[in-house]
Amino acid sequence: MIGDKKVLFSGMQATGNLTLGNYLGALKNWVSLSDEYECFYSVVDMHSITIRQDPAILRKRARALLTLYIAAGLDPEKNCIYYQSHVSGHAELAWILNCFTYMGELNRMTQFKDKAAKHADNINAGLFTYPVLMAADILLYQADVVPVGIDQMQHLELTRDLAQRFNGIYGDVFTIPEAYIGKVGAKIMSLQDPSKKMSKSDENPNGSIYLMDDPDTIRRKCKRAVTDSLGEFRYSDEQPGLHNLIDIFCACTNRTPKDVVSEFSGSGYGQFKEAVGEAVVSVLDPLQKRVAELEKDKSYIDSVIKNNAEKANYYAQKTLRKVQKKVGFPEKIR
Ligand code: ATP
Ligand code: LTN
Predict the structure, then answer these.
(1) Predicted TM-score (pTM) of this structure
(2) Phi first, then psi: what are they for 305, rounded to 5°?
(3) How far apart are CA 311 and CA 223, in angstroms?
(4) Å from CA of 52 to ligand 1 middle
(5) Is 311 a known active-site residue?
(6) What is the pLDDT of residue 25?
(7) Predicted pLDDT at 184
């Protein structure tokens, strides 16, 4: 707890161009939760280097992501929006937690297996211990709630196991976090292959709508989305392409699948795809305009970066000092 509020932590990597899946599955939920909790939203740049990055591009994307958090509606006066690499406590706690994590636990992580297969020439130790750094992110702020997409559940389970293990040995040190999975938009699938999630690292750009796509591109991608030949307007697992488009439409317009099915039953897929395109444009267009505005105000963004790193550091140090003492590190002489 901070004051009378529960703590929320989440983060996103600044690798690749963010997709509609990232927005609907993550960012949009963050905004809706930001009044209720004391929130920490990090640009997790330390996680990004588990895959080789061009330094100039990473720096640029990290700033763009931080700006996007604000543009999406997270008020940086109320929410702590900061770069992970500006708070050394993440790395320090990750090291300690590494010593409480079993190889077998990390070997089971499906994201590691996927990423190792994708980057077979660079299966580094950081990629392997990535979930431990993620656990450190969360536990450092004593987070109660962690909004993530379903794909991150396994990492969150590990975080809970580590916290429980540590508490079991040393007493109540860490808050045990709960996942928060949003109801709509939890898993947006690729427009070209609805069996795969929409992902920023997808090689086929037509499968993903990028947050910075212009309106015509968005409309075109929606129009070309893969559906089926059944020709019936239903919300069913047997029609994964249509199911996904309905999910996107609902998430963008705050409607329920039931309402949408009754409105569009009788319409052709083509007509619905157009409506989906318009709904996505109406969400992304204002977002893009706010990003452009904010980007002009360099000193404002700089002040957010500085002030929020200080705030994050304050809370991080509190937990870190407690943990260091528990494991037996000698006290610093001040
Ligand atoms: P990559 O392709 O590089 O693995 P990604 O697009 O899967 O990236 P992440 O950086 O892993 O994105 O995820 C950031 C956040 O967005 C996470 O909370 C994740 O659960 C959520 N997210 C990512 N893709 C989707 C999706 N298709 N639908 C819903 N949520 C998603
Ligand atoms: N692994 C996450 C990003 C991430 C995160 C976190 C999410 C890093 N640290 C802590 C929630 C809490 C991802 O790739 N989506």
Answers:
(1) 0.92
(2) -60, -45
(3) 45
(4) 18
(5) no
(6) 85
(7) 64
